[in-house]
Amino acid sequence: MTSPLSELAELSGQFDTEAAEVSDAAAWDALRIRWLGRKQGIVRQRLAAFKQVPPEERRDYGQAVNALKGKVEGALEEIEARLAAAAAPAEAAALDVTLPGRKPMLGSIHPVSRVAAEVVDIFNGLGYSVAEGPEIEDDYYNFEALNFPPDHPARDTQDTFFLSDGRLLRTHTSPVQIRTMKARRPPIRILCLGKTFRHDNDLRHSPMFHQVEGLAVAEGITFGHLKGTLDAFLKRLFGPETAVRLRPSYFPFTEPSAEVDITCTFCGGDGCQVCSQTGWMEILGAGMVDPRVLAECGIDPGRYSGFAFGMGLDRVAMNRYGIPNIRILFDNDERLLRQVKR
Amino acid sequence: MQFSRNWLGRYVEVPEVDDLAEKLTAAGLAVEGIERSGDDVVLEIDVTTNRPDCMNHLGLAREVAVLFDRPLRAPEPQLAESDESTGDIVEIELGTPHCPEYVARVVRGIEVGPSPAWLRELLEAIGQRSINNVVDITNFVLWESGQPIHAFDLDKIAGSKIEVRYAREGERLTTLDGEERELDPAILTIADAERVVALAGIMGGLDSEVTETTRDVLIESAHFDRTAVRLGARRLGLHTDASHRFERGADHSGCRPAADRVAELLVELAGGNVTRGALENPHPEYFGDFEGTVDLERLNAFAGVDYPADGVEHYYRALGFEPRSAGDGKLRLTVPSWRYYDFWQRRDDGEVWEADLFEEAMRMFGFDMIPADLPAIGSPDLGSSREHGKRERIRELLASCGYAEAINFAFGERAADRLLPGLGSTGEPVAIANPLSEQYTVMRRSLLPNLLESARFNLRRGAPVVRLFEIGRLFPGGESEEIEAVGLIAGGGSPTPWDRQHEVDLFELKGVLESLYETFDSTLEVRPAELRGLVAGTASEIVAGDRAAGYMGQVDDAELPYPLFVVELESAALTEADHPEPVRAPSRFPSITADLTLTHALEVAWADIRQAIAAAGVANLSSFGLRDRYSGEGVPAGAVNSTIYFLYNADDRSLTQEEVNECQASLIAELERRFGWRG
Predict the structure, then answer these.
(1) How deeply is A222 buried, as exposed, middle or buried, from its count of CB atoms within 10 A (0-12, 13-18, 19+)?
(2) Residue B634 phi/psi, 5° resolution?
């Protein structure tokens, strides 16, 4: 019968033989379990056998078992590192990095909201704040206070949706200007934006569209300030090379009124089909706030003056993203919406 | 509106056409098209509603003359009158104040026939059809001077009498276009001794029309109240060249010159004799003189430029405002009769508003001359609306959750209004009195019907997954204010296993909603509810305070290719504090996790379990949540396994496993006691 101690020496040799044969992770794992497994592992069994060793040999036996344990653990670690080093390049080669990544589904912000946010951003920088108002209005705020007298032909230009209770859907965001001027004293610098409605429906017109209007009222506001503000705004929105042209026009609530053109964004001003060869695109309406409107809101037109401007956001969005007709804008086709990234 | 260059050339020397177009546009008469036609050039000009004086060639020539500093050659009719007095032939009676001026002339012995080539060509250049010399002449004078003219066959005027009066109940008239029209007392008419013969300022009657056999004509050149004409035209659904001008306002001193001009041309082109005198009843007091003062200093301060004083005066004179010096750099101005209606809204003291007068100088000098400048207003406007910023945050969060923003019309079908729950929708929806189509008859009370249509639009195009959101107003009707709401609709999933994306289910939408609430520092609360249009068992209300501020569920429609889930929520339910919550510094010490699998009846609500854990007040429990739910093999029927994870962490030390075990033990005991499966 061999002594427990010589048995240990044998085992040590046996481990060396087995360890030399390990060439992959599976074999390494089998080796680890065979020798260091918690219940059936050889080292564990040898430790448990301690009690069967005659008392006089126990000291030597204990040291030998611990030595074996240390040797096995160290060797396993060494082999693991060697295998890892050898395996690394092989595994990297197995990964095809040209496979498509797993993109999280990104949402999108509507083209009109994008443009609106940019306009707000530009005017925030000029010290304007955003004002809000209802989409259902009455005749007073939508027309009368804005100097559209009853039965006046100027109302013809504002094809109106009337409600059965006598109110109407705002045809422009200007009622918000009236509400603001009635509620606050100058200096005022606001932007109002949102949905507006006209009784019109074809390829070029949608019964609902979006406007942004700006209003500045203070002492000493000049027509030159209107020009400067629009110039700064439109250059930011359409690019620094954009030229801006104001020409006299007519709106009941501004005096004088102006149509504002920018250099055609398609041809850069050379003349093309889009701009009817003029090189200009009509982009917004503006003017000095009519003194009748100021007076109606309780603001003394002898002391204060102001300017206002209004722009359709839908056309700008169509122009910016190359959307050919306004109806597409409200189809809510995700294939289109999700292309809008900025 | 079309203008002929050759026609314009009768009154002013016309400059090169590109120069002309540029200057007119810069002065407020936008030239939108230039078309050559033979030896003529036709200009398409957008004449704004406040400038009826420029809706004719002479008026446009007046602007050209001022802009290019050239003389204006207005026609001066020369008439050789016969001995017969017009007053012996016809009598005029004005039965209403809405005709402040009526000028009548009679030309006898004319011969109706074709117009000469020059007249035909001018009319045709601007798209008018030549009919005969008499009709063409009246048309010519309208397009020359802006004064609408009507020619009656004198023989067909009963009782040699013309009366301007409102129609009587039941009266009828067949107008020139062949339509028989029923009239009512809101319609201003021209009548003879027996019946209505024309609609005042709108259209003549067929019976008294000038025909080939007409020998004597009565020329009407009148001024009608513009509101009366507008209301009558609208009532009858008519819009004519005449009504277009009267509604906007004709030159109130233009009636007589136009009548004379027609008479002159009739003699020249159709033979005949003009009878002696015109019948007229001028009422200058009806209009009065409109005057105002321009203070050069205020003009310059208003425009933001220094205009030369003599230049300002020159333009006002050229435009017919008769400037007189009023001292101190002030000019006293009178509004010319052809501009009356552009200035009719005056100040309380009867003075013309200075801004209306400023405009004239500013547009003549051109806006280009005014330097661009930015206003220096000391403080920024701080009145910004909270709603705007909040809306932007919602928008950004939903987009970052993978949803695409939709924008729908704010109105929809009445039938769709009741399909889904809607917010605050009791009673009747707000109806549109003049809808464009049956599709858009009521204001929406929910975002979802239209959003569902958008989802269907995408489904029809084969979308494997739909994720849309919308932010917009709802219109509950009655006295209620507009409600801003957020709507979500989603369904489907990725068909490609590689992408490892999950199918959309109700809990995805709920998760998005929870993220939204967390962004606004509040907690989502839902309770099951029965709601129309949603699959029973999936529907629930979103609670804010003690009321429902929204709802969610699965759309009840078996036809859909895959289930669609919806959420609608009032924006007001997302409340935000004035300032963001301060962040909590994370602990520097390691945390310990523990899991618990609780077998409980299917009826036990997660909300109750969650509530029980939160209420237990376990020390150092920093977070917990549902790891998974499992039912099937090994779980009794009627029960489910909820595996809950717990994360323990202390700010001031490393927790020991023993401490955590102790906490978990009492928690487990509590949960088992309250919710554990009893078979």
Answers:
(1) buried
(2) 90, -10
β-bridge mates for residue B162, sequence order = B92
Domain at B2-67, CATH class: alpha beta
B592-675: CATH topology: Alpha-Beta Plaits (3.30.70)
Nearest CB to A334 within list B354, B381, B466: B466
How far, in Å, CA of A320 to CA of A144, rounded?
Answer: 35
What residue spans in chain A does CATH classification 3.30.930.10 cover?
A: 111-337
Nearest to B209 by CA among B136, B290, B153, B145: B153
Q: Does A101 touch chain B (CB under 8 A)?
A: no
Contacts of B385 in chain A (CB under 8 A): 129-132
Cβ neighbour number for residue A268 with a 10 Å cutoff? 14
Q: Do B458 and A333 touch (CB under 8 A)?
A: yes
Contact A208 B345 (CB under 8 A): no
Dist CA A224 CA A214 (whole Å): 16
Could you give the residue ranges of the DSSP H alpha helices within A184-331?
223-238, 291-296, 313-321
pTM for the structure as a whole: 0.84
The per-residue pLDDT for range B393-430, each reduced to its tens digit, is 999 999 999 999 999 999 999 888 888 887 766 788 89
Alpha-carbon span A336 to A324, nearest angstrom: 12
A215 strand-pairing partners = A190, A308
**Per-residue pLDDT tens over the stretch B110-128:** 999 999 999 999 999 999 9
Supply φ then ψ for residue B62, to 5 degrees: -60, -45
The one-character DSSP state at B205 is B
Nearest CA in chain A to B394: A109
Helix (H, G, I), strand (E, B) or coil at B660: helix
The 10s digit of each residue's pLDDT in B298-352 is 999 999 999 999 999 999 999 999 999 998 899 999 999 999 999 988 888 889 9
CB contact under 8 A, B26 and A331: no
From the options 3.40.50.720, 3.30.930.10, 3.40.1400.10, 1.10.3720.10, give the CATH code of B387-573.
Answer: 3.30.930.10
Question: Backbone phi, then psi, for B255, in 5-degree steps?
Answer: -65, -50
DSSP per residue over B247-309, as a string?
A: HH---TT-HHHHHHHHHHHHHHHH--EEEES-B----HHHH---EEEEEHHHHHHHHTS---H
What is the C-alpha separation between A215 and B474, in angstroms, rounded?
Answer: 27
Q: What's the angle, vertex CA A191, arms to CA A234 and CA A155, rounded to 5?
A: 90
Radius of gyration of chain A from its Cα atoms, rounded to whole angstroms: 41
Nearest C-alpha of chain B: how many angstroms from A302?
10
Hey, of A130, A137, A330, which one would you mutate to test binding to chain B, going by the most B CBs within 10 A of its CB? A130
Q: What are phi and psi of B266, to 5 degrees?
A: -65, -45
**Over the range A69-78, which residues count as b (16 or more CB within 10 Å of their CB) and which as e?**
bebbeebbee
Cross-chain Cβ contact A135/B473 below 8 Å: yes
Complex ipTM over 0.90 = no
- Residues B267 and B248: their CA atoms lie apart, in Å, by 31
**Which spans in B566-656 are helix H?**
606-615
Q: CATH classification of A111-337 is 3.30.930.10, yes or no?
A: yes
Name the residue among B231, B302, B463 with its Cβ closest to that of A334.
Answer: B463
Contacting residues of B for A173, CB less than 8 Å apart: none
Which residues does residue B489 pair with via DSSP β-bridges, in sequence order? B468, B566
Task: Name the segment(s) of chain B with CATH classification 3.30.56.10.
Answer: 2-67, 290-368
